[in-house]
Amino acid sequence: MCKKFVLTFIILSQYIIFSQDKKDILPPKVVVEIYHGQKIEDPYRYAEDLNHPQVSQWIKNQNKISTDLLNRIEKKQYLIDKQIEFDKKKAYAISKLKVTANDNHFYLKRLPNENAPKLYYRKTFSSKEELLYDPRKFNPNSKTEYIINYIQPSWDGTKVAVSLTTKGKEVSEMIIIDVALKELHPEIIQNVWPSYLGGVAWLPDNSGFIYLHYPCIDVTSMDFLNNTKSVIYKLGDDPKKIKELFSYTNNPELNLKEDDFPIVMLENRENKYLIGQTPGVGSYFNSYYLPINEIETKNWKPLFKKSHQIKKHVLRGDSILFQTSKSAPNFKICATSILNPDFDNPRVLVEENKHEVITDFELTKDGLYVVKSKNGVKASLFKHENTTYKEIKLPQTYGDINITAKGQEYSELWITAIGWTTDNKRFEYNNSTLIDKSLNEAINRKQFDDIIVEEIEIEAHDGEKIPLSILYKKGIQKDGKNRILMDGYGAYGISFKPSFSLRRLLWVLEGGIFATAHVRGGGEKGDAWHKGGYKSTKPNTWKDFISCAEYLISNKYTSREKLAIWSGSAGGIMVGRAITDRPDLFAAAIIEFGSLNMIRSEMRANGATNIKEFGALKNAIEFNGLLEMDAYQHIKDAEKYPATLLTAGLNDARVPAWFSVKFAAKLLSANTSSKKNLLLIDKDAGHGIDNTKLKEFERFATVFSFAFWQTGHPDYQPKQP
Length: 721
Description:
Number of strands: 40
Helix content: 10-25%
Oligomer: single chain
Largest sheet: 8 strands, mixed
Structural class: alpha+beta
Radius of gyration: 26 Å
Distance between the termini: 52 Å
């Protein structure tokens, strides 16, 4: 498949002095490889070793250059202060709510003067709130601040498992709290990441739980994420003595793979079966079942296959209800028996709707509830009764709705609804009655009353209709002079759903327009939408994004000089290829922890699992797809590129920082425009998830001030040194 040649001499680019000083350029050392007959040059392969003396020094230099420049934008502090001001207007912020069947409420709550939330408890919704745990008590001698990134109470609410992490890391440590005594169990469980996959499944008798154990937690090691295993932990046991339940090594008869994530689910303590799954990157997975009363046998049996395209399922006795896209790209809901399953010809409960996508469903004592979404931006809730639907009317239209059942023996359905300008609302639906059960304080909407939301569809390069969400302040003129920040994602079948963000609205309140392109590769229009920007069809993702940019320019929302684009992670493919395909179209691009060197994707710790989404090097067709989506490989010498800001974290467990380092180094060498190409590598950051409040405020102020600067806002120009 691949032959490799290393050119030991250094090739000095003739273009290195145009936009940066010569000392800013990292010298290339070209490695040549042959893939499926194609010659691939990689001038910065050695930069994959971030500890290489020349590379580490260059990163330090780039950090200093970028930080000095960005800190000279005096109004950057204003953006931080405005976020603090917004934060103080709310008495508190609540997240990660978990409610038990006996109505115990567990949640994280952060006050305006706090940098990280604490764990609180209420016996019932209307009971007095009690502080259960302050993460500052965990490892109090540490100089770093720990945050809680996951909680899971036991079925009876007497105990709660809590995972904590620090410095942007996601791999965590887990403690167990006795709720009545408000005391910690003495054991600390290591090598966990419950906020990512599987979480914690308490055993029906609350004597312990099942969780996913990570044997290797070094995010730079190729063994990271391999041979993970679901294990049983009983309270009081030594957590170092691993008791495997479901894994590659424990269940060889199931032919699991080393890079599978073998998680175990128990949705309800009344369920008769444990469900094993092997999810990860990709929408679908193989599944297995084990009677809960046979847990000691570990005798798992196959249930359904990845080819059955099942996204979500709910157990009811010996039956399984499931949401599938097989022969139904917008999904349908079906049922079959667990003991005698027929997933190829199941009983159809809810037919596919050609104009709306089924995004969620739940089962209560009173029946089946279904959420449908149009273009990923307008959600509706229905109760399914025989062959008819009854829409559950909410106080207003929401962009996104999620539902959770208290249990199949209860009538209560919990509804969470949100929109672009509407903060998270929580309702309980019970016997045709809708009750507001929001724990979060209602935000003052007056400051957002003048914000307009346009939901439109624009025509892509191939005639497909791409949903585009546009937010701006009332009275704005479409004269081509507005500054736009446009984001998107387009990967893994994940929909970029409407969500309330004070930061996004801050851009609008500063006079800008915020746009979100719902490009192919996401799930806004169902499974077919995902497959339309997947592996060999991935170019549709950035071509859709480019089409949205061209629409905004041709319809006078903005101009090329005032259009900035922004995304991160797998969205880095979209932005990276947009600027390498059409460097003339954008003023600036911000890529955070971006996937920018996809033909090297398998050489990262998280690489094997991402083959399912992007393709494999050993497959000639999929290799061509990986090469096409590789933004690093598409940088051209002597090209005029837009301004760029690339960020990454050394604690990132998903996308290695060297993706950004290599892209930045090559771009600096190739770029002949006068635009700045900045790089920020944070040794104390991860994948941009679960950061503390002040770090998040700084991050978004940096992104916005750079975008305002590069789109010509007079108040955001760097002060002269």
